[in-house]
Amino acid sequence: MEIPGKLVVRTYAPARRFILLAVTVLLGLAAVYLMFELGRQQAGFDGIQAAQERARLEDQIAEMQNDAHQLRVQLDAFDQTIPGCANARALVNEHLEAELHQVYAAFSLAAHADQDLKTRH
User: Fold this and answer.
1) By residue range, what is the domain housing residue 28?
2) Domain total for the chain?
3) What is the pTM of this model?
4) Do 92 and 113 reside in the same domain of the chain?
5) Nearest to 22 by CA among 12, 14, 32
6) In a domain, 83, yes or no
7) Which of 28, 78, 99, 107 has the fewest CB atoms within 10 Å of its CB?
8) Is the dihedral of CA 72, 74, 76, 82 positive or negative?
9) For residues 43 and 24, what is the distance between their CA atoms, to the nearest angstrom?
10) What contacts 118, CB < 8 A, 6 or more positions away?
11) Can you give the pLDDT of all 121 residues of the chain as single tens digits?
12) What SS3 state is found at 5?
């Protein structure tokens, strides 16, 4: 058996190539994320303050929703004790709508101030 003079033996390692590619992509993504966070920090974004503001607004929303629930309970009680009291029901409904508009207005104002808040819906 005769071996030709220009025989080249190459190792083919697809797993090594895939692992190298995956590590490179992950390092690239990590670098992009770190640059993004550095840009936010240099622009004056304070993550701790934003989280505190978000928590305060969520507490305010929960309180307003609790108030709305209590008003609905009162409405049900009025409907059971005084049948046909449409005027009282209309007043309570107007009040509930005003409360909900306040909640959504506060949330949308906060969302404009903090773009990350939009992702929390």
Assistant:
1) 10-45
2) 2
3) 0.44
4) yes
5) 14
6) yes
7) 28
8) negative
9) 29
10) 111
11) 676 677 777 777 888 889 999 999 999 999 999 999 999 889 988 888 889 999 999 999 999 999 999 998 988 887 777 666 667 777 888 888 888 888 888 888 777 766 555 454 4
12) coil
